[in-house]
Structures
1.
Amino acid sequence: LNEFELIRHFFQHPCHDNAVRLGVGDDAAVIAPSPGHELAVSTDTMNEGRHFFADVPPASLGHKNLAVNLSDMAAMGATPRWALLAGSLAHNDTDWLTAFSAGFFALADRYHVALVGGDTTRGATSFTLTILGEAPTGQAITRSGARVDDDIWVSGQLGDAALALAAMNKQIILPQQTLNGLRQRLEMPEPRVELGIHLRGIATAALDISDGLSGDLAHILDASHVGARIHLVDLPRSQTLNDFLNSNQALALNCLLAGGDDYELCFTAPPSKRTQIDTIAQSLAIPLTRIGEITDGKMLHVINENGEQINHLPRAFDHFAND
Ligand code: ADP
Ligand code: MG
């Protein structure tokens, strides 16, 4: 397959979106944004060896490459609409590309996201996806709106993706069946797109947890000029992770507070919104848990099961932390 056959075969996909006036195949795509809306635009790169193992199932990789970007749209309260994919490929293995493309478009179709363009080059395997979403003018949810006494909420459960990674790196040993379940969380994250949209007008601030709760929540605190107190006992977690809180507390804390790749949403909202948020949780069948509150000051305090402050918080993932 040459470059153009490859693009046509694996990345040109039927599009039923009238807003896409021109998709893959010209020098640029032409799209017509919805009146009364603003565009939310974001991009994310995944490099082999850094963000995924070389032998990761390609369908999972296609899914995750889009999922992490959908998660950014969710965090903004934006409806994801259009994507551009810049792929650097070490090979043109058609079985691999077929699976990658199937994983990608299964998720794209689910959220009616159209792939409108991209770039295809040869090189070390790497995918950079750019996503465009829409939110009604003025309604995108930022990191800067948290206010003192707001509740802090998270969706789903925290730390399972990091636990899977620890097992895959042989730091811990898990029964095969348990590991398979956790690997789903690492390799096939489910972006909280509907939740983000429902949180417009309710959440005062939001982000998605990609680098670990404590580091990511700190971004909200910085942007909003506030502090926070969160309670370890309230952090939602799987039974498997909970068991590690007894047997290997350092690891469990690390997964819960600094584990990357969860792609859950963390958001703040005034206590007056609790009933509305509980209703959203029920209607979407997504667990939403209150884990603490916004305080004045600038610090994040994590309180343990004895009511004491945990002093040395595990650090969030940082690509350049050791430079
Ligand atoms: P140009 O040389 O004008 O930059 P390309 O030859 O790189 O265009 O790409 C041809 C068309 O295919 C363009 O419309 C581009 O957006 C699209 N395209 C290239 N690679 C991909 C990809 N991986 N996924 C989706 N569309 C792609
Ligand atoms: Mg090009």
2.
Amino acid sequence: MLSIEQARQACAELAAESNSLDDELLTLTELNHRVISEDLFAGVDVPPFNNSAMDGYAICSSHTEKSLFISQRIAAGDRALALEQGTAARIFTGAPVPKGADAVVMQENCEADHDKIEIKKWPKPGENIRCAGEDLRRGDPLLRRGDRVNSAKLASLASCGIHRARVFKRPKVTVFSTGNELVPPGEHLKVDQIFDSNRPMLQAFLSQLEVDVVHSEILDDDRDKTQRALQSAAEKSDIVITAGGVSVGEEDHVKAALEKVGRLDLWKVCMKPGKPLSLGHIGDTLFIGLPGNPVSAYVSMFLFGQQIVRGIAGEKNWQHRSLKIPANFTSNKVRKRPEFMRVQIQDQGLIPYPHQGSGVLSSLVWADALALIPAETPIKHGHLLEVYPL
Ligand code: AMP
Ligand code: MG
């Protein structure tokens, strides 16, 4: 059995070993959530010119006269003339600061009377001026190959005038739920059947990662059918993900089927929920076999599947974010395996969901984080736990 850290390492290595996907050129508005495949640099200074951070009056701070004539009016988008000596320029936020001015007095600190102002509070040099290049200088690195774009990064590209960029193509993924008891939501539920929640969960999870789900299906608990389905999925996918059927029961056929059509690289992680995790290959296609219990499937996808999918998608600079937060509970239970507890982060510390069963999806709905409870360790109030925000 692998430790959590070893499993995480194995996921990173699996993703790193795989070949890079092709890339494509997209326009700015198509870039959100995509993974950049080239290093990008600022081609201009941002902002491109010194401009006013306030509505007010641009002046030369070394002048001493408190009463000044207003010699020009500069709004955002206007061209500024050089400041006449001994005068002030009416100026608005975002407008270019005229040559000869080195400070802007905010209008609240002036008294205006027709074409003159009286300055109540003298500014320091540079006050209320946003300097050219204070955000980015021409040539500064913007995004690296392997960075995933978000709205802030997209805005930064736009601020430099970048209107298109190269990104990795979306990885193709097939998703299977396995189990004779499963029925897709929307169909009639017969006695002893349950609705399939893993496939919708995985599709939703994957859609946040901008992958292309090329196929998804419920597989019966049948060795031959599973084998054929895995083989044909591998032919059209970069990644095949299954949920369920991965233990060693008589009705668990995924592991055996994978061993027939491909290769199993890792099996079983010392953790709860989610011990039975399979990772492997079918040809060049990566295989991720998640446990069937819905909470285990989610936690395994969150901790391990996500890392592989992001890696295959070309995202090289990603790591799980974790924080240390004190427990606001006690637990004397001695655990054989480390446990990812569904918790809420509150002001006083972490609160666990009362029912931590691996089939209780409500625990994940309620939780905003997973707290790692180490094995063999009773938890007292204030015990600092490693927490993974969901
Ligand atoms: P398995 O890993 O196939 O032994 O499944 C473990 C438990 O999870 C069983 O109670 C299954 O009925 C349940 N389960 C498996 N797959 C799903 C699914 N797609 N949606 C909901 N429950 C599932
Ligand atoms: Mg099953």
